[in-house]
Amino acid sequence: MSADSGLITTLIALVAAALALVLAGVVLFLQLRLRRSITLMEIVEGRETMVDVIGRTLQDFEQLREDVIEIDRALTQTQRDLADSLRHVSVVRYDAFGDLGGRFSFSAALLDDSGDGIVLTSIHGRSETRTYVKGLTGGRSDIDLSPEERRAVQLARGEES
Fold it and tell me: Helix, strand, or coil here: 45?
């Protein structure tokens, strides 16, 4: 048993020595990193210091912040412009008179996001065509809308019925 005890004692001593070496390596590594950091912070002529790097980085962040604010302003203006554009469009074609076929008459609604815009109607007859324009505010007109015009407004506003 004493041979086994001696072997175990030797193994424990070797493991302890290996741990001591690893610990010494970690301490040496940390000391080198600390010295390097201190060297970077010292003012050395002709070289950029850590303080210079931090200052430049903060300036870059400030410029980035200003750029983001400007982009946000432009995006907000673009959203306003888009909401005011006549981008909701629908066309309803129909036969205005029973004796004509081909659905040559139509009502077209052109609206912005709040329902403001126009309804353009063209009534096609055998001998003439008449065109009418009615203004809309909030999807409503001061002039009565025909069923086809109301349908065109509903479709342009995305209201299915």
Answer: coil
Residue with tokens 């907000």: 76
What are the backbone angles phi and psi of residue 123, rounded to the nearest 5°?
-105, 115
d(CA 128, CA 121): 14
Tell me if residue 111 falls in helix, strand or coil: strand
- Indicate the pTM of the whole model: 0.56
DSSP state of 99: T
CB neighbour list of residue 154: distance below 8 Å, 6 or more residues apart: 160, 161
Residue 101's Cβ-side half-sphere holds a number of Cα atoms within 13 Å equal to: 0
Per-residue pLDDT reduced to its tens digit, 39-83? 555 545 556 666 677 777 777 888 888 889 999 999 999 998 888
Bridge pairing between strands 88-94 and 117-124: unpaired
Helix (H, G, I), strand (E, B) or coil at 112: coil
Handedness of CA 16, 18, 22, 27 (dihedral sign): positive
DSSP symbol at 122: E
- Can you tell me the distance from the alpha carbon of 51 to that of 73, in angstroms, rounded to the nearest whole number? 33
Q: Which amino acid is at 5?
A: S
